Structure formats: structure tokens, C-alpha cells
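[Q] Does anyone have a clean C-alpha cell version of this?
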Amino acid sequence: MNEVRVREPGQFGQRRQNSITITSNGKTREYRVPASVLIGFVCLFFVGITGYMGATAYLMFRDGLISNSLARQARLKHEYEDRIAALRAKVDRITSRQLLDQQAVESRVADLMRQQEMLSGRNGALKTILDKARANGLAPADAPVPTRNPKNAALGETDQLTTGSISISNNETHASISLRGTSDALPGTDSNGISGSSNMLLASTPLNEGVFGEVLDQIGQVAMAQRDTVAALHRAAHDKASQLAALMEEIHLPVPDSASSAIGGPYMAARNDMDFEDMVDELSNTLDAIEKLRKRANAAPLANPAPSAGVSSNFGNRRDPFLNKTAFHAGVDFTAPTGTRVHATGAGKVVRAGRAGGYGNMVEVDHGYGITTRYAHLSKIGVKVGDWVSKGEVVGRVGSTGRSTGPHLHYEVRRNGKPTNPIRFLNAGKKIAKVL
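[A] Here you go.
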């Protein structure tokens, strides 16, 4: 049975102390617990519960933070990977564009070099043809070269007539593609004007159409000047050959086939797109024709046998000084003192040299093509049969031997043995000398 505790007298109104009673085997034990200890245990309990709940909440919240952090890191990783991929693609595009630009630059430079090689190759042909033109009396000055465009003056002076050298601006980009033969090659470049690192420099040089445009413009100017020079020389040579052929035909001298005026064919408009080599060949052929005409004219009796003497009797009928009646005079008489030099009027071979009846002392020269000249009444003969005489060479001295009334030179020109008027040859010789 439960024990009923009765307050003892004097305990009424007093607060009973907390106690713990333990009954075991009929024995009862009572333990008194101070209120402060009990309160401490209760507080400690609540603190433990609070700590546990806080720790649990913290662990749950921490897991969320870790998850969020991992998700954020994964998101950043993907973003960086995307940016790296984009940058890599951009780098690839830039590299590809640079490679294409480099290939384009190298291709353009190779094209420029080929054109420069072409111009340089023309130099030899131009030099040969210009020397040939000068030998035939055609100076390059006879062939006008177009004047340089003032807006291109800054590109440098170029000898457009005889060289393919190109001089370009002195900036680095221009220097990197200086063509071979330029006189403005920078220090450190070889004789071709190309530095050893030019390819590397070109690889890093953006494709600048302005640079190539300037160089191509210069190459075009040089090529055009070369073509214009050859064309102008050809026109001058053709005119000269035509004039020489016409003058020689006037005196019935045989004209080389290449210089003959016997030409024809259907009409075709003049061409301005002929190859440079074809133009040079045409000019060379025309110069060859002039050379043949020159040799033919040099052999023909076109010079004056006694330049300082005057004409005393012309070719044709006249009154004979001995018979005093009309007679045919087969030559021209030049009055000159005895001993005056007599010159061969053209190149040829001496076929007669000695006494010849009424001619007195006479020299006869065969000029070929059936044309011969006679120099009569000489006081002295300076050549012998078989000698080759050149134009202007002395063949004898003026005298009065043979059928003569006084010192003079009797000069004849014969074609196939028949006398012809020497004055026609002398007049033609003066005209031809002006053309030559």
C-alpha cells in the first residue's frame, strides 16, 4: 500500500524539497535533489536537444551548400570549356586566314617575280635590238617613250627603256617584296633584292592590294614603255627601209626581197596585242632589211668621185670639142687640177686599170648587179686589176691623158655595159645619205 505521508506540525506552508524515493525489498531510500541541480539537468537537457537539432539542421544545410557549390563549379567548368572552345575556333579561323593570306601573298609575289623575270629576260633582247638599231642609224631617241604619270612619281625613277628593274617605296612592307634588279634594295638583301627572311616577313604581312597595285603599275609601265619603244623603233625602221627602197628603185638598183615594196594581202586592222617577242622579231627583220639596203647602197656608185670639183660637162649629147659637131657624151666631166684625188663612188672590184684608148689612163670598178663605173683621163692610177676597193677609196689622180683638152675627170656609170646618167646616182646618193 502506498504510504501516506503526513506533514508534520510546523511544516504547513513550507515548500517540500524535491526528493527521489526508491523502495526495494521493503527498504525505502529517499534521495533529496536540490532544485538548482534539477534545473541544471533540465537546462542541460534542453541545451543538448537544441544542439542536436542545430547540428542536424547544419548537416542538412551543409549538404545543400555542397550540392549548390558542386553545381556552380560544374556550371563554371562548362562555361569555361565553351569559352575555350570558342577561342580555339577563333584561333583556328585566324590561323587559317593567315595561312590563306600568306599563300595569297606568296602567290602574288611569285607572279610579280615571274613578271620581273620576264622584263629582265627582255633586257638582253632589247639591248641587242637597240644596238642593232643604232648601227643602222636609228637611235632610241627616235622612238618616243610615254612620259611618267606624275601621280606615280613617288614610286621611284625607273629606266623604262633598257631595264626591268623596279624601285619601290622604302617602307618595310614594300621592302619585303622588292623585285630583283632594283637599285633600292635595303641593306642585308642579296643581289636580287630579296632578303633571306622575306618569306617569313611576307607570311606576317597582310595582303595589301595597294602595295601590289603599285608594283604591278610599275611593271606595267616598264612593259608598256618597252613595247612602245619597240613599236616606235619598228615604225621608224619601216619608214626608213621604205624610203631607202623607193630611192634605190628610182635608179633601178635591185632591192632585197625583205625591203621590196611588192606587198599585198587582205586588209586587217592594226594589232595592239602582239607578243613582245613577235614585235622584236618584226623589228629585227626590218633592221636586217635596212642593213641589206645599206650594204647595197654602199656598193652602189652613189658618192661623188671628186667632191671638191665642179661639173664641166654633163651626160648626153653635146658638141664634140675635137670634131666640133654633136656627139654623145657617155659620162660627166669634173674639172679639177692635175693630181686631185679621185675616189671610188662605191665598193667593188677593179676589173680594168691601165691605158684604154681615148679614155687615157682609166680605172673600171665592178659594183655587182651589172653596174660598173669608169674613171678616165687619170694622171696616175692607184690600184690594179683584182683589187677590192671600198667606197671613198682613192683609185687615181686627175689628169689629162687620152682624148682630153685639159685636166679633168671623166666619170661614167654603166648598167650591163650601157652608159647611164651618173647625175641620177649622185642625186639619189645625197638623198640616201640623209636617210641613212
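[Q] Thanks! Anything notable?
[A] Confidence is low (pLDDT under 50) at residues 142-205, 261-270.
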